[in-house]
Amino acid sequence: MQKISTFLWFDTKAEEAAEFYTSIFKNSKITSKTLYQADTPSHLPVGSVMTVSFELEGQEFTALNGGLVFKFNESISFVVKCKTQEEIDYYWEKLGEGGDENAKQCGWLKDKFGVSWQIIPENIGDLVNDEKSTEVMLKMKKIIIKDLENA
Questions:
Q1: Same domain, 57 and 84
Q2: Does residue 128 belong to any structural domain of this protein?
Q3: Which domain holds residue 56?
Q4: Cα-based distances in Å from 85 to 18, 24, 65, 70, 97
Q5: pTM value?
Q6: Which CATH number goes with the domain that contains 36?
Q7: Could you report the per-residue pLDDT of 114-141, keeping only the tens digit for each?
Q8: Residues 11-34, buried b or exposed e (16+ Cβ, 10 A)?
Q9: Tens digit of pLDDT for each residue in 66-111?
């Protein structure tokens, strides 16, 4: 059991988000769901999904349908470290599908649920190690490894 896990508050799309994320990451699964009961205060009907627990690449997450109280913002993001440009392209396309096009910068994107992700090469520290390579990266939306290597 993971000592620290991530808990995500959604308005009403916790199950949809869990299904979306588990469809993208190969080593993933939905592990459990809880439903709203008659004695649970909620904006959702009895029997609708309250929480969904799931794993992505061995990391545990719980998503809650909690209502219109909180919104995601960029102060928290998930980092996906990629070995190849093909892997960057895959996660960029899949996680960015339906997301905010204006929120894409320097390897960051916001998905269709408002969750922020950083899709980066696992050796980003080696690739962005001087003023010139940093300047090149700051002009990118999706990280292009070859462009950083050439900087």
A1: no
A2: yes
A3: 6-65
A4: 25, 17, 35, 34, 18
A5: 0.93
A6: 3.30.720.100
A7: 999 999 999 999 999 999 999 999 999 9
A8: bebbbbbbebbbebbeebebeeee
A9: 988 899 999 999 999 999 999 999 999 999 999 999 999 999 999 9
